[in-house]
Amino acid sequence: MFHESFCRPHAPPAARILEVGAGPTNATSAFLSTLGELHGVDVGDEVRSNACLKTASVIEGDRFPFPDASFELAVSNFVVEHVGDAASHLREVHRVLKPGAHYVFRTPNLWHYVTLASRLTRHDVHVWAANWLRALPRDHHDPYPTVYAMNTADAVRREAQKAGFEVARVDLVEREPSYGMAARPLFLAFMVYERIVNATPKLAALRANLFVVLRKPAASSFRS
Questions:
Q1: pLDDT tier at 41 (50, 70, 90 boundaries)?
Q2: How far apart are CA 64 and CA 95, in angstroms?
Q3: Domains in the chain, please, with CATH?
């Protein structure tokens, strides 16, 4: 759903695409590479092993090694929750996008029970619980530390406006729970939650993820 419904419509033919937080070879990179020329940035060396990227850059902080107006689309998938300075992050994405281009991202919603539990526990506890609840193997990559600086719909709109973006779309989405894989009773309980919050728009604020589309205005006076 994220790839097809949110990313594909905003990629013009033969687009130059930037994946922010690309990491090693993964399903998002594989999909984006079918839409155009894919470049990736990340804070970890593992991005250099991503076979889907034309170029892979390791960065420190928020500065990307590209000139202004370099890309027709920027995408990040479960990355924004790790960004400490949302304003600087969005200004840099805005800088490297061409006028009229979009930044599409998926990130956890702060008001979902999983995100709240993560925010209220130490990172080492979060690492253990996250991998156990998803029934992941012991050698699976541990979750990165989370900040949740821009993980509500209101925060997205506020920070996007400050960075010079137009908010094209903010959807709150609850899918089948991956955090119930450790035990059947957990999975059933989380499935009940999923059915309840999807039953009415009034409970949308409690859904798991934010699916966001931001647009850099075609004629923008904003300076990054």
A1: very high
A2: 9
A3: 2-215 (3.40.50.150)
- Within 33-96, residue ranges assigned H as helices are 86-96
pLDDT number for residue 95? 97
Average pLDDT score, the chain: 88
CB 114 within 8 A of CB 108: yes
- Is 101 within 8 Å of 128 (Cβ atoms)? no
DSSP string over 144-205 = PP---TT-SHHHHHHHHHHHT-EEEEEEEE--S-GGGTT-HHHHHHHHHHHHHHTS-GGGGG
Tell me which residue has tokens 């530390």: 145
User: Which band of pLDDT confidence, cut at 50, 70 and 90, is reported for residue 178?
Assistant: low
Query: Strand, helix or coil at 39?
Result: strand
Contacts 24+ apart (CB under 8 A), 12-15: 12/36, 12/72, 12/73, 15/71, 15/72, 15/73
